[in-house]
User: Which sequence fits this backbone?
């Protein structure tokens, strides 16, 4: 089978209108703009309205990505939704999005890998395209993380914000999209960034609420140490496995949590800081939405161009990490339309299977009909024979009776 790739053909970003600045936070918790800016680089973040949900934001970003790729919702083959703040525990946010998009019947599922979720989703989506199972997959990262933040805890209150990002992936014959990746998880660090209450280990109760256990807790120093060690090495690994020299990497889009982490990665890798996307000053850490949002900003602001090789580097709760080298070439060559629409081997294979099923059904019908006919004949043939004999006997009897009357 021809090697398939998953071209990134569309991207979209959405953030709520309401801004929460460092000065606003000074009024809420014991902190200062100076401390937040110098320790994190964040100046403000967006906060969704009480009636605005994660799926509402995902819908906006997804529509922009679909529009850009010129894909109709009903043409989608799969939706993967990375989030840690779904609208409900049950059902998946992906199903709500699928319904709101009007993508009737399209398979959809949520993916939970903390802030690394969108990289896990991009890698997962690419596997579906590369195996030939699906042609068009929508990857979404969206979070209303503010719903899980304790605004009396300055540790987390300063860091997180809400938003959504979406990427459209379409099958391609040319080597583009995801070129190499590394995913990882170190569950020994599960409690470095976690939410103690509300899950099956500690279901909602008055105690959970009284102890504010429904909110996110973070050990910033452990997270920082883990990231500095793991992510630098992971970036080196994925660039190496992509087969590209580091000099061929045009741009880097790291997870947006703290500018100090980004600066550390950049300096350890001796990478040009001007080629690194930073938008956390305006949005804070939007968890699984951060990388697709930053990639969308980089594209919209002309920081990345057709043909660029880009490193994406995510890390988050788990602790998880996910690093990828992508080739950015969103313009679909015209001959690729044919791959997407007609000459699609999987479509042919499915057609073949459908024909086989139809043939098997037809043959089963013929067999059943034949058997039924045989069964009915085994009863009817003796009956007809008996009836014929009876008629013959009766006719004979009638003939004898007539002869007697005449005689
Ligand atoms: N405002 C003002 N002061 C604060 C503060 C805040 N929001 N948070 C902590 N402080 C104080 C501390 O009490 C401490 O004071 P002290 O020296 O008098 O004891 C001082 O600032 C330094 O605190 P510390 O915890 O050592 O800060 P830090 O340099 O480690 O920075 C983080 C804290 C959270 C910014 C940093 O650890 C970090 O960014 N970690 C990674 C987090 C992350 O990326 N999370 C998302 C993962 S997806």
Assistant:
């Amino acid at each position: 089978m021809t090697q398939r790739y998953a071209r990134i053909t569309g991207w979209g970003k959405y953030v709520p209108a309401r801004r929460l600045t460092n000065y606003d936070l000074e009024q809420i918790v014991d902190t200062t703009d100076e401390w937040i800016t110098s320790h994190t680089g964040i100046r403000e973040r967006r906060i969704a309205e009480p009636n605005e949900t994660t799926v509402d934001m995902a819908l906006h970003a997804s529509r922009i990505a679909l529009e850009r790729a010129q894909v109709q919702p009903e043409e989608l083959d799969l939706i993967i939704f990375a989030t840690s703040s779904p609208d409900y525990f049950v059902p998946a946010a992906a199903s709500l999005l699928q319904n709101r998009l009007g993508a009737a019947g399209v398979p959809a599922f949520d993916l939970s890998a903390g802030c690394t979720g969108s990289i896990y989703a991009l890698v997962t989506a690419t596997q579906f395209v590369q195996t030939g199972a699906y042609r068009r997959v929508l990857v979404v990262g969206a979070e209303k993380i503010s719903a899980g933040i304790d605004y009396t805890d300055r540790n987390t209150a300063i860091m997180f914000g809400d938003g959504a990002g979406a990427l459209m992936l379409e099958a391609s014959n040319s080597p583009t999209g995801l070129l190499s990746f590394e995913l990882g998880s170190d569950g020994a660090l599960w409690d470095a960034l976690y939410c103690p209450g509300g899950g099956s280990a500690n279901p909602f109760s008055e105690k959970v609420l009284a102890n504010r256990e429904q909110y996110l807790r973070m050990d910033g120093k452990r997270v920082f140490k883990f990231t500095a060690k793991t992510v630098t090495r992971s970036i080196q690994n994925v660039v190496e496995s992509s087969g590209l020299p580091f000099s061929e990497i045009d741009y880097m889009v790291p997870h947006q949590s703290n500018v100090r982490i980004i600066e550390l990665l950049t300096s350890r890798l001796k990478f040009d800081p001007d080629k690194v996307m930073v938008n956390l000053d305006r949005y804070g850490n939007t968890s699984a939405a951060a990388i697709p949002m930053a990639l969308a900003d980089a594209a919209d602001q002309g920081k990345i161009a057709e043909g660029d090789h880009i490193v994406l580097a995510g890390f988050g709760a788990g602790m998880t990490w996910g690093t990828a080298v992508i080739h950015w070439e969103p313009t679909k060559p015209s001959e690729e339309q044919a791959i997407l629409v007609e000459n699609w081997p999987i479509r042919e294979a499915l057609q073949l299977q459908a024909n086989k099923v139809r043939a098997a059904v037809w043959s089963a019908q013929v067999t059943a009909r034949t058997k039924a006919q045989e069964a009915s004949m085994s009863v009817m043939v003796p009956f007809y024979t008996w009836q014929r004999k009876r008629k013959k006997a009766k006719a004979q009897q009638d003939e004898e009776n007539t002869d007697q009357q005449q005689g």
